[in-house]
């Protein structure tokens, strides 16, 4: 794998790691708020939001795995 390929891959992975942090931070904040509020409506909102944020995490991880698989299959990879 050439240096340019390594740099592009690392940039892509860095972007995806950033994309992982955003939903995880949102999820943590929503859960902590629901914990503080303690009512059923807050808990439901936290769970609903958690499902959406978990989907974002899964999508980011999937993109990272696909990128790594492409690199492995590329000539010289």
Features:
77 residues; mainly alpha; 90% helix
H/E element order: HH
Strand content: under 5%
Our count of domains comes out at 1
**Overall pLDDT confidence:** 85
- Poorly predicted sequence stretches spanning 5 or more consecutive residues: none
Quote the distance from N terminus to C terminus.
5 Å
Task: Give the helix level as a range of percent.
Answer: over 70%
What is the count of β-strands? 0
- Main sheet: strands, sense, barrel: none
Overall 3D shape: elongated
State the helix count: 2
Assign the structural class, choosing from mainly alpha, mainly beta, alpha/beta, alpha+beta, or little secondary structure.
mainly alpha
What does this structure look like?
With 77 residues, this protein is mainly α. The chain has one domain (3-73). It has 2 helices and no strands. The protein has helices spanning 3-37, 40-73. The longest helix is centred in the first third of the chain and has 35 residues, at 3-37. It is elongated. It starts with a helix and ends with a helix. The model has no long low-confidence stretch (mean pLDDT 85).
Task: Offer a concise description of the structure.
The protein is mostly helical and 77 residues long. The protein has helices at residues 3-37, 40-73.
Write the topology of this structure.
Elements: H1 3-37, H2 40-73
Helix pairs in contact: 1-2
